Each structure stands twice: as structure tokens, then as C-alpha cells.
Amino acid sequence: MKVVIAPDSFGDTLSAPQAAEAIAAGFAQAASGSVELATAPMSDGGPGFIDALATGLPDARRVAVPTLDPLGRAVEGSVLLAAGGAAYIESAQAAGLALVSEGERDPAVASSYGVGLLMLGAVESGARTLYVGLGGSGTNDGGAGLLAAVGVVAYDAAGVAVGPGPLALLGAERIEGFAALRTASVVAATDVDSPLLGPDGATAVFGPQKGVTPEQIPVFEQALARYAELLERDRKVTPAGLGQLPGGGAAGGMGAALFALRGKRRSGFDVVASALGLSEQIADADLVVTGEGRFDEQSVRGKVPAGVAALAAQHAVPCIVLAGDVTLGRRQLAAYSIDEAHSMVEYAGADRAMGEAADVLTELAESAARAWLR
């Protein structure tokens, strides 16, 4: 029996490689050596994007790039340079929510500027195609900081550059500098299909986890709508409007900013799965195991578990999910070709699931494995 183990990271508790190792340990304990285990740590464009890709691109090399975190503090980032002039950039290295403590989170200040610095570093290293992994951000600035870093600047009526901070966009009247990055093409590797604006957009859905209060949502929405209007006026990205493009709301709106740079959208999961040859690994498997920290409605909108389950379904291989918490019911699981979903919180309680994540995940995997190996 062959089992392919392809999880995402489990929030801040376990990286994707750590999660894969914990699950594999559980299956090994249950199987007593009678099962072939293949691990493929995944990413949807968020944290772990470069690490996951590096396992499938052994000839790629990392290049250090100094950058800034969401609050403007110096951090050391890196880009992954691969054959053919491709560069892979993990936005979470510079704009990640994990870089800002809960007490420091201020969406009116947090900026994606550091992501633009990573992009410039990749171009200076000779990259011609930039795959920017979007996900896990602590910013809600519509990518305005990213664009400013590469030379795309918003000005007010007096010709003064606006900013910093997304709310300053309310006073923007024009945007200039779109010759930026003209030597490179851009791919937005998104983790969700959410648009920039609206009830399913960046602010309404993801803003609260970054510190946006219910009272602030309308003003942030207004600021990003103004920015999208100006970008669309100059760039004419789509007749439907930049604010409604699927994926534009990824990483606090960085997806929309990359679209304004003529970037193309691709699922972050697909980028990683292709590099790892995941479909080929699954083709001769008997069971696929995936997982993430919280398996909920957002998980089926471009996240790793949904992507893994879809590949498993293509090859008629059963798929199960192991997650920190599970909120989807049986009918929803069936709709996405997922046979079972198991919760660490339900299995061991919230305290153990958080405090002893690796051990609990191994125990949960062993329990699930025994049921499948009978």
C-alpha cells in the first residue's frame, strides 16, 4: 500500500515539512513497515512556499535579499532562483502575519513594501519571471506598499506622494511609475480566489485577523476601492474592474497590485504541485493524506487540502484530511471528494492540540491509519 502525505503548514504550530513528518510517523506506527510512505510538504503560496518548491527544484538556488517586515523593520529574506530565469518569492517573508505580534497589529500602518523589495532583489539577480507566492499576510494595503517599492507611486491633488498606510489612499488622485519591472513578467501565485473588494474581499474576510475592527471595515474598503479605481483607470486591467478579479484579494490585496503590473494569476497550489510532480506521485497511490491548521470554508477556495483532494479524485484515489480544527460537515466533504476529515482539537482538546501539536498529529494520524489499514 502506498500513501502520499501532502499537507500544508498548520498555522504557526507546524511547518509543512514538520506536519508531513508527524503524519508519516503515525502511519509508520500503525503499519509496522507494510506501507510505502511518500511525503510532499505543500504550500498554497503562503508561508513555506519557497521551502516546498525547493524540494521539487533541486537545482534552484536561494539568494539572500534584505527586506522589511510589515512595520518597516529590517528582516532577511530570500528568493529562489530556478532554471529559465524564474524566481520564486514568498510574500510572507516580508509581509507575513507571523512577523507581527498580536499586540503590534495595526492595519493602518502595516505595509507590503518589503515584498516589492524582494521582487527588486530577484530582478537584480537576473530573474525574468517572478512567481510571487501570496498568502499568510499581515497587511491590508491593497499592495500599495509593494507597488511603491518598485516605483509605482500614488499622488494627491497637490502632487505629493500619499502614504504611508492604506488609509492615505483615500486622498490619492493619480498613480505613476508603471514602467517598473518592465524587464520581468509577474505571476501572482494566489492562495484564495477572493476579489479585492466586496463582502468576499480582502478586508471583509481577512481584515479582522490582521486587526481591522468591524467599525474600520467600511473605511478600509473605501480606501482600497479608490486605489483600485485609479489603477484600473490607468491600466485598464479588466472591464469588470480590478476590484472584482478573482485572486485580487489574496494577501491583503497584493493580488490586485500584481494584476496592475500586468501579472497573470495562477493557483499557488498548482505552482508547487507542478514543481513536485504531485499528480504523478498520487497516480499510483492507494491513499492520500493532506491537512492544514484549520479546515473550513476558506479551505475549499484555493487552499492546499482542496487542491490535493482534486488531484486524488482525478486518479480515483481516496483522500483524507487531518487538521487542527474542522468545521465542514460530511456533505461538504463529499462535495470536494474528501472521504474523511479528522480534528486534532476534537481528538485531544485545544490545549494539547496547540501545545503538543506534533505529538497530537502523530497520534491522530496513527488512529486514522489503523482504520484505513484494516
TrEMBL record:
Protein name listed in UniProt: Glycerate kinase
Matching PANTHER family: GLYCERATE KINASE
UniProt cross-references to Pfam families, sorted A to Z: Gly_kinase (PF02595)
Protein's organism: Epidermidibacterium keratini
Molecular function terms, GO-annotated: glycerate kinase activity
InterPro entries: Glyc_kinase_flavodox-like_fold, Glycerate_kinase, Glycerate_kinase_RE-like, Glycerate_kinase_sf
UniProt KW keywords: Kinase, Transferase
EC code(s) of this entry: 2.7.1.-
Main enzyme class: transferase
Membership in a protein family: Belongs to the glycerate kinase type-1 family.
Gene Ontology BP term (one): organic acid phosphorylation
Endpoints of the signal sequence: none
